[in-house]
Design goal:
The chain is α/β, with parallel strands linked by helices and 107 residues long. It has a single domain, classed as Glutaredoxin (3-Layer(aba) Sandwich), CATH 3.40.30.10. Helix content is 36%, strand content 27%. It is built from four helices and five strands. The model has no long low-confidence stretch (mean pLDDT 95).
Length: 107
């Protein structure tokens, strides 16, 4: 079972803003090759940090409101939330170790 939540414009506030855990959102699209390259790292880190950090993905093609609210212009974009507030953003593809260092800052 995946530990990565699938977000939509409709469930964003409930899943992210109201979350008691820190959250990482992966904004992606099916046609984005760097997004696909990052997917295994996201899945692995979601399992490693299960119960400590919530991981979520949002397809920017099928959801326009939230990506527009956060001015998503490049993919993949990762936004880190703590207590419902944005604390950091990473844009692009990079080694899983870079993402993990950012995760440690959320805890």
């Amino acid at each position: 079972m995946s530990t990565v939540y699938q977000l939509s414009d409709e469930n964003f506030d409930q899943e992210i803003i109201q979350s008691s855990l820190p959250v990482v959102i992966d904004f992606w699209a099916d046609w984005c090759q760097p997004c696909k390259a990052m997917a295994p790292a996201i899945e692995g880190l979601a399992q490693k940090y299960q119960g400590k950090i919530k991981f979520a993905k949002m397809d920017v093609v099928n959801n326009r409101t939230i990506p527009t609210r956060f001015a998503i212009r490049s993919l993949p974009t990762f936004i880190f939330f703590k207590r419902g507030e944005v604390v950091h953003t990473l844009i692009g593809s990079f080694p899983a170790s870079v993402l993990e260092e950012e995760l440690k800052q959320l805890l």
